[in-house]
Amino acid sequence: MMNTIEQKVSEILGIITGENQLFNNLTDEEKIQMLPSESMLTLQFVTYLEEEFDIEFEDEELDISFFESFENITHAIRNHVNEKTA
């Protein structure tokens, strides 16, 4: 499941940023760090994640540290998924 989460997050990131030239030629890590500068894309990204993984982030989770790294996002998703299956 670990790789699946990373792959899905990467796919969603590509969908959300695909048409925005600011994100051309950036790694997933760089896209994540740049995402908060585009508030509408950020909202779409979080919504896609919640729908894809059938989870709901608390508002407090979605602070700047959430977007500091790709790993932070996948870790948060994994925690929510694990809570659902526990």
Query: At CATH's second level, what is the architecture?
Result: Orthogonal Bundle
Mean pLDDT: 93
What's the gyration radius in Å?
12 Å
> Spans of 5+ residues with little confidence (pLDDT < 50)?
none
Work out the helicity level.
55-70%
Give helix and strand order, one letter per element, not per position.
HHHH
Structural class: mainly alpha
Number of separate strands: 0
* CATH domain fold name: Non-ribosomal Peptide Synthetase Peptidyl Carrier Protein, Chain A
* Tally of domains: 1
| Mass-distribution shape | globular
Alpha-carbon distance between the two ends: 15 Å
Largest sheet: none
Question: How many DSSP helices?
Answer: 4
CATH hierarchy class name: Mainly Alpha
Detailed description of the structure:
By secondary structure, the protein is mainly α. It has one domain: Orthogonal Bundle (Non-ribosomal Peptide Synthetase Peptidyl Carrier Protein, Chain A). The protein is built from four helices and no strands. The longest helix has 16 residues. The chain is globular and about 40 Å long. The model has no long low-confidence stretch (mean pLDDT 93). It comes from Chryseobacterium kwangjuense. This is Carrier domain-containing protein.
